[in-house]
Amino acid sequence: MASVVSIDKLTKTYENGFQALKGIDLEIEEGEILALLGPNGAGKTTLISIICGLVNPSTGKVLVGGKDVVRDFRQTRSLIGLVPQELTTDMFETVWNTVNFSRGVYGKKPNPALVESVLKELSLWSKKDNMLRELSGGMKRRVMIAKALAHEPQILFLDEPTAGVDVNLRREMWQLVEKLRASGVTIILTTHYIEEAEEIADRVGVINGGKLLLIEKKAALMKKLGRKQLRLELSEPLTALPASLAVYNLTLADDGTALIHEYQGEEGQGAIASLLSTLAAENIHFRDLSTRQSSLEDIFVALVGEDA
Amino acid sequence: MNFEAIKSIYVFEMARLRRTLLQSVISPVITTSLYFIVFGTAIGSRIQTVEGVSYGSFITPGLIMLTLLTQCISNGSIGIYFPKFTGTIYEILSAPVAMTEIIIGYVGAAATKGLIIGVIILATASFFVDIRIAHPFMMVLFLVLTAITFSMFGFIIGIWAKNFEQLNIIPMLVVPPLTFLGGSFYSINMLPPFWQTVSHFNPVLYLVSGFRWSFYEIADVNPMISLGMVGLFLVICLSILGWIFKTGYRLRN
Q1: Tell me, what's the ipTM?
Q2: Listed residues A171, A198, A223: the one ending a domain
Q3: Residue B124 — pLDDT band, cuts 50, 70, 90?
């Protein structure tokens, strides 16, 4: 697939000497949902800000739709919609005016029908004449999204879209993201809610300390780095593991009443059958069995932990 | 040129004027009326004429300038400072808008507001004193150039200011003394020679003098020099803005 955003050796050092980005290379494919994970201060927002033109890069290059974000800013920024992390709204404006203003600043001719459909999509239509300060936090968040969509962007950046958002709204946002992707919009979201990435992303990038630690298809990442665990609840407690079981990666837990087998990704799966037959041969019986797959969170914590 | 963006910013800014009509328009009118009552009528009635013009008429151009400067600086600075303060500026900075378009939108709106108030004060003044405009074209030119220049100056302050104190310090502490000492209420010919010389370093003198000349053809300095000085301030403000936008000073860093 074609890259819609192409980032080459990008660095950013702020005036106070803080180096927020230390050489990022990243290709974002057209039509994908990319989740950028990272702890606070990892450089996610700086990266987005540079792509969107809010911050000047120190060195390196960013192309959006094949155009340079600094030199050809008109073309690149027209393609992009940005929902920033913070709820920044012009308190005394009405929803209708602020969303139409956004469309205008992006150089698009007024289109009340389109703005109406965006507001309806986000359940904001009944609030269109309300001042922004009268809205709840969740409603304001929707307004931010409506503003970003008002000029029909091809690429949508959601910076921490669900921070401080209740479960319902989060679900609704995920649905909206799916819908947008179906219409061909490329979506880049940053988050530190890992379940969010796990739920909706196609690819996951992990950023920490201004570096992109990895970028991988979510499924491949889980396969590669995801750990699986088989837990057997034994009928009779064991005091020690028989020698015949030493070849398996096994540990005894809960005073010998449970056996835990750890394996990684797919390659470990073949071992389960032979483990179970060995257990039968040793006359070790179990009353229950469960498997558990490590979440993206575990992967993330392991990665970021390693780096720190 | 992204004309839609200029229009959007301009209309948005002008909408703020409508929302704050009382504060934006009524209060300068009341303040100016008080000046006319105190200086023009109460004290002015004891002063015969200044250079052949009744005192009330004499101070009118200076009063308009005083209000125009204050209003343009404050509108120009708040217009850009407020989005910076609330964070909504992200949208303008990430939009496909060139800096020139941002300036035209914000400065245009600030200057328009200043001009509207200037005209209202001129109208108010005509209730109190006789107004005669000898050079209407020059008067409009001075008014418009001054409004644009000082709205830009305000815009620069708005970008520079990091807090409300810095935002207010120049409009509150610098502009009134310069205006009062710049010959708004007297002709500098009334001053001792030393202070006359000092006054020539006050930029506001040139604005007031040139503007007054367009009314009554009396001036402390040659009106062409005044016009040149207004042009010079305009160029200085443009250069500073050019530098700000080239470097992203306090906006993109």
Answers
A1: 0.82
A2: A223
A3: confident
